[in-house]
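Because discrete structure vocabularies remain unfamiliar, we turn briefly to a single example record, giving the amino acid sequence and backbone structure tokens:
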Amino acid sequence: MNFTFPVGKLPPEFLQQLINTLPTQSERVIVGPGIGLDCAVVEFGERCLVFKSEPITFATRQIGWYAVQIAANDIATTGARPQWMLLTLLLPENKTSPSMVKEIAEEVSETCRQMGIVLIGGHTEVTSGLDRPILVSTLIAETTREKVITPLGAKPGDVLILTKGIPIEATALLAKEFPERLQGVLSEFEVDQAQNFLKEPGISVSRDAEIAVKAGEVHAMHDPTEGGLATALWELAYASQKTLVIDPSEIFIPQLSRKVCNIFGLDPMGSIASGALLIAASAESGLEIIKALRKESINASVIGEIESGQPAVYQITEHGRQLLTKFTRDEIARVYETV
């Protein structure tokens, strides 16, 4: 029997092998493909364009809103603001109604208007073999080379700051997609609150990034998405070629998120975590960044630091440093497999 990959991201080692075979080198490409490098940056004279493509595959409800917000998060980690959008909309055969398409279009339109994004093109089709809509958004931003922030910039001595907590997106997704699994275990108020995690504390990190950059010396930012915070930390280590050391006790996990993850038997560290922002900043400005974020009612704390050394992530335990667990796929993928 031939080996097949499970649902989720390709293993990083295999993905890097693929990237190594691709034509990625150009004088104008400042940042190309790589593990932990979510955005591409291309130089155009005195300006730079930042590109990000993102599929929405887990969510079905409010998928148009997701398609804009999730890609915008990655753009935000570069210190830029998204301005233009391309959208590919793949719709399921025998399940696509005019009302479904209109609802998705309205969600995309309203979210783009709120964020000042112009839709400039894309593609739509009804596709065989799908059981739900899949949206792929490409966002484009304009900035200067001096202002671009990437995971490549993390430095030894930097502190690692985490905003909001984890796993915000997993909490909302599970509550929205599988509410019947929570009923009878959580109260009706708790289910509603978990579903509202999309907006409060929210899965957008645009404000988090903007506040952090204004408040201190930010060297790198990364958006924990599929694979959770653990995967984001490993990706940052690979991208920056540095050693990360974290203290798990400093990672904020809302009590409601713990309850939801426990019900589904998931590890919060490996569950999709959009809404949190991982920031590498100079030790001197770390406290100022946290103060500025908290002033705007955004929870933030130092969860670790960056050291020179081989790319690895260690956690501090009572037995000393231990390598942080790697997740071969996002924890919520196991929930979708049982549907």
